[in-house]
Amino acid sequence: QVQLVESGGGLVQAGGSLRLSCAASGRAITTYTVAWFRQAPGKEREFVGSLSWVGGSTYYADSVKGRFTISRDNAKNMGYLQMSSLKPEDTATYYCAAGGQLRITEASMPNYWGRGTQVTVSS
User: Fold this and answer.
1) Among 13, 119, 102, 118, which residue's Cα sits nearest to residue 58?
2) What is the pLDDT of residues 39-91, one digit of tens each?
3) What are phi and psi of 88, to 5 degrees?
4) Which residue from 108, 117, 115 is spatially nearest to 52, judged by alpha carbons?
5) Residue 44: alpha-carbon gap to chain centroid
6) Phi and psi for 89 in degrees, rounded to 5?
7) What are the distances in angstroms from CA 11 to CA 14, 46, 61, 84, 122?
8) How many Å apart are CA 44 and CA 28, to the nearest integer?
């Protein structure tokens, strides 16, 4: 089992930046793809991006491409989501996820999920 805990959420002005962290415990995430999803009030959960454990390949939703970057530190068992040029429409609860898939996409269902951290972007 892998436990995931997100942190780093908060209130930021439009155009600002924020870095979310995902602390993993229970097992090393060295052989897990790390992903981020988000859910805004009244909307369905949305895929943000993923970082494969094989080759470090990344995959992002079009809505965040060029603004968000996923990274990981296997030595610390951590994942990160660097968000820049934030927009009010980025306001959501952000969830870290991990799975054994080589690639996590919009259609994937990762095995493990965190409980989320709130990000609010003011205009």
Assistant:
1) 102
2) 999 999 999 999 999 888 999 999 999 999 999 999 999 999 999 999 999 99
3) -55, -35
4) 108
5) 16
6) -70, -5
7) 10, 20, 22, 13, 7
8) 30
